[in-house]
Amino acid sequence: MGKSSMVIFEPEETKHLVYLKAALYETLRLYPSAPIERKTVATTDIMPSGHEVHTGDTILISLYSMARMEGVWGKDCRDYNPHRWLSEDGNKLVYVPSHKFLSFNSGPRMCPGKDIAVVQMKTVVAAVVWNFDMEVVEGQSIQPKLSCTLQMKNGLMMILKKREI
Ligand code: HEM
C-alpha cells in the first residue's frame, strides 16, 4: 500500500468495535448534541416524582445536567468512562434505557437515525484513528458552548500526522 493511501472501512467491518461504540455513547452522554429536550404536557397529571403538571405546560429536560447527576449515573458521573457501557468481560454493551441515556431522545419521537449515526461515527473514527497519529495541542481552553446544539466554544486544535501504513 502506498504511503499516501488512506484506509477506509465498510460499516460491516466496524460491527465488532464494541469499545468504540461505548466510547461514542460515553461522549454523547457527557456532551449530548442536543443538550436540552423540550416536552409539552398533553394532559394534566402527576409525575412519578410527585410534581403536578398541567396541560400545555412546557418541560425542559437538561441532558447535559442529567449526565452530571450522581442519582442517575453514579458517583463517577463526571468522569469519562466508556467502561460504564460494557459488560465485565468488555465484550458486550450493557442495556441502558433510553429514558436514562436521552441523547437520542426517548419514546415515540426517538431519533430514527440513531443506528445510522452510530455506524457513521464508527466508520469515521476508525478511519481517522487508523490513518493518523493524533495529538491534542497543549494549553487550550476547551469549553462547551451551550446552545440548541452543543458546540465547542473555542474548537479543538489537534496535530495530525499521516501514519505510514
Ligand atoms: C449523533 C448523531 C445524532 C444525534 C445525537 C441525534 C439526536 C436526536 C434527538 C435528540 C432527536 C429528538 C429531537 C426532538 O426533541 O425533537 C432527534 C430526532 C430526529 N433525528 Fe436524530 N440524531 C442524530 C443523527 C441523526 C441522523 C444521522 C438522522 C438521519 C439519518 C437523524 C434523523 C432524525 C429525525 C428524522 C428526527 C425527528 C424524529 C421525530 O421527531 O419523530 N438523526 N435526533
Automatic annotation (TrEMBL):
Q: Does the keyword Glycoprotein apply?
A: no
Residues annotated as binding heme: C111
Q: Which UniProt keywords apply?
A: Heme, Iron, Metal-binding, Monooxygenase, Oxidoreductase
Cofactor(s) essential for the protein: heme
Name the GO terms of the biological process aspect.
lipid metabolic process
- Alphabetized GO MF terms: heme binding; iron ion binding; monooxygenase activity; oxidoreductase activity, acting on paired donors, with incorporation or reduction of molecular oxygen
Pfam families, sorted: p450
By its UniProt entry, which SUPFAM superfamilies does this protein fall under?
Answer: Cytochrome P450 (SSF48264)
Family the UniProt entry places it in: Belongs to the cytochrome P450 family.
The molecule here is called: Cytochrome P450
Organism lineage? Eukaryota, Viridiplantae, Streptophyta, Embryophyta, Tracheophyta
